[in-house]
Amino acid sequence: DLQICQHRAPTCCTKKMEESYQAAVRRERTQSIQALNFELKYMIVGHITAFQEAFESLLRFAENRTSSLFETAYRPMAKEAAEPVKELFTDISLYILGAETTVESAVLRFFDSLFPLVYSRLINPGITDLSEDYTECLRLTRQDINPFGHYSKNMVTELSKSLWASRMLSQALSLGIEVINTTEHAAVSKECSRALVKMQYCPHCQGLTLIRPCVGYCLNVMRGCLASLAELDAHWRQFISTLEYLTNEMAASHELEMALSGMWSSINEAILHAQLNGPQLSATVDKVCGQPKQQEGNLSSASIVPVKEVTETQTFVMAHTSLNNKRREFINYMKRSRTFYASIAERLCDGDLVMRDSSTCWNGEDVV
Questions:
Q1: Is the pLDDT of residue 51 over 90?
Q2: How many CA atoms lie within 13 A of 21 on its CB side?
Q3: How far apart, in whole angstroms, are the C-alpha atoms of residue 101 and residue 177?
Q4: Among candidates 174, 123, 161, which has minimal Cα distance to 145?
Q5: Across the chain, what does the average pLDDT equal?
Q6: Domain-located, residue 131
Q7: With 0-12 CB in 10 A as exposed, 13-18 as middle and 19+ as buried, what is 97?
Q8: What PANTHER family does its record include (predicted)?
Q9: From CA 113, how far away is CA 136, in angstroms rounded?
Q10: Cα 133 to chain centroid, rounded
């Protein structure tokens, strides 16, 4: 009553043993693919972590630099500016991780929060009544009177270009893991499990436990079983090309590192622009929002202090070099995995599974 290992010679197998063999080959095929996938998956997961750590390091550096700007050049508003600065960098971090937000909304929300502080602490430092209504009016007015000139828009443009590739790379790596995980649990068809039993276990039914399959026979069986995975080949090659494009984009002229490290400078220029245009801004704000309460003998506008570049270059250079090295190492590894799905049958038929250096092997019917 054997269904798979039918042979003219006497046999020591039963139908129940054949069923056990079918369960065994399904389990073994899953384990073999998992073992092949492990290195690739380990590499991608490792780089997701490494890239994320490098991004966070650069973001922390840029945030510290921006906070230092307020503490050294704009002390009257430093304490109140801390929260908007923190929110801005949290939003950027979430954007890179793929959150449903945009760089433009994050940057403009920051400048909306910044304008009431610049207006009441630097342009008109005598204002005592900064009520919720008045603050909100200033926030909304910012969008119409554009107190920060072209600097806010420039910042959006620079960051959008550099952060886009980082966001896409982050999402692409997660997609890569998803694809690999899916291939590990692809169902084994009935025909495939029967072919694998015939190849690996039918010799055992005749007591030939040391004979292994012939190489060509193994390749034919594995290619048939893995046809659905081999179909991924063209898509996987395209995926590697996309990763290459994204890593090159990250290293191109609009680098993430340069854009982040220059944020404090853009914010500084924007505040200086608002201060220089203080009288015109005050006149417009008074018309729109009314005149707030002032201290007696209105204090003079805070003097404009051009800020010198904060010297934390070493930290930045280390983070920059680290990210560049990780990019190069990663893309070189991924390029070597281009043929991963095209060569999966060859790799499964390598090693101990087949007979390579012997004159005898199993061809599915007999020892040859």
A1: no
A2: 24
A3: 24
A4: 123
A5: 85
A6: yes
A7: middle
A8: GLYPICAN, GLYPICAN-5
A9: 9
A10: 40
**Residues 12-18: contacts with CB under 8 Å, at least 24 apart:** 12/205, 12/206, 12/207, 13/204, 13/205, 17/205, 18/197
Q: Which residues contact 329 (CB under 8 A, 6 or more apart)?
A: none
Burial of 176 (0-12, 13-18, 19+ CB in 10 A): buried
Per-residue confidence band for 325, with pLDDT thresholds at 50, 70 and 90: confident
Phi-psi region of 297 (alpha: psi -120 to 50; beta: other; left: phi over 0): left
**Residue 345 CA, distance from chain mean position:** 30
Q: Which domain holds residue 118?
A: 16-290+315-349
pLDDT band of 297, cuts 50, 70, 90 = very low
Distance, in Å, from the CA atom of 294 to the CA atom of 321, rounded to the nearest integer, reads: 51
How far apart, in Å, do the first and last CA atoms of the chain sit?
26
Number of domains comprising the chain: 1
| Residue linked to tokens 């599915």 | 364
pLDDT digits (tens, 9 = 90+) for 98-124: 889 899 999 999 999 999 999 999 998
pLDDT bracket for residue 16 (50, 70, 90):
very high
Give me the phi and psi of 337, to 5 degrees please: -95, 15
359 part of a folded domain: no
| Within a domain: 170 | yes
Residue 72 lies in a domain: yes
